Amino acid sequence: MFENIKRISLAVIFTAISGSAFAAADIVVTTINPDSGAIGTARGVPDPDVFSVCTDMDNLPYSNLKQEGFEQKIAELIAKDLGQKLKYQFSYDRQGFIRNTLNARLCDVIMGTTPDNDMMLTSKPIYRSGYVFVTRKDSGFDKITDWDSPELRKGVIGIVGQSPPSRPLADHDLMGNAHPYRLQRDLNLSPGYMIDDLANGNIDVAIIWGPIGGYYAKQSKVPMVVTPIPEYERTNAQGKEYWNISIGVRKIDKARLEKIQEVLDRRQADILKILDDYGIPHVPVVAGDNLIQTYHETVNKKPSVTE
Length: 307
Prior knowledge:
This protein has about 300 residues and is an alpha/beta fold. The chain has 2 domains: about 10-125 and about 245-285, D-Maltodextrin-Binding Protein, domain 2, CATH 3.40.190; about 130-240, Periplasmic binding protein-like II (D-Maltodextrin-Binding Protein, domain 2). The protein is built from 9 helices and 13 strands. It has helices at about 10-15, 70-80, 95-100, 165-170, 195-200, 210-220, 255-265, 270-275, 290-300, and strands at about 25-30, 50-55, 60, 65, 85-90, 110-115, 120, 125-135, 155-160, 180, 205-210, 225-230, 240-250. Strand 9 (about 155-160), helix 4 (about 165-170) and strand 10 (about 180) form a beta-alpha-beta unit. The radius of gyration is 20 Å and the shape is globular. The relative contact order is 0.16.
């Protein structure tokens, strides 16, 4: 979002989808085919009566096979409002995901992407989130509020390697405290395994994307504190912490997106309630947020004559 794709046998899938938990939507699971969606290959035919979502089968808090993710709740809301049948096309959200699902016309909607994703036509942002500090309550580290908090220098800091917060972490000479996690997680582990390590005392602070940190902190049996990380974009654009999130469709599907947008505009309060129910931290959307523009204004800023 390359390999080591977890494979699920047809027997397991057929057993799973026969249960009542899957009655809300049709379920389709595909194995990654490197040729799917390529020029000259067979493609699916979109059904105008179906709200067909491309999503991951094991990626809470966003989605899973049991339809427990917050993006799936938003998809249910949209499909019901449009009077369409909901269908999920599941595949692991890794390299080739868009080409193998959306562009192969096996499904029509991506429930979460940035508004400036040039692979898709995107809606107006439906929410904005950012990275967070997650700490154990009453640990002493729960007093951390920003990069200058002295507690950061006293503990082990879990952070995903090469994620945006690694920039301010390095700028504040805190890399010596870092316990790095893989950008592409091992599919045998929970998406929230950094929070598991925090709960078990293996790390003292988790620096993690807000929706993941907020959700798993809320699920944890160990009381947690979730603190928003201050924006760093104006100091260094590579450390941008907050992002608008939109819904995406194929670039040619303008009419489809217009219908979706009408629902999003009508049901914004309901969508924000879903986020709150899942513990997803969010802040007001920033209209026109543009990383490239900020990058040119900061990183590429030419010094003045007096500098």
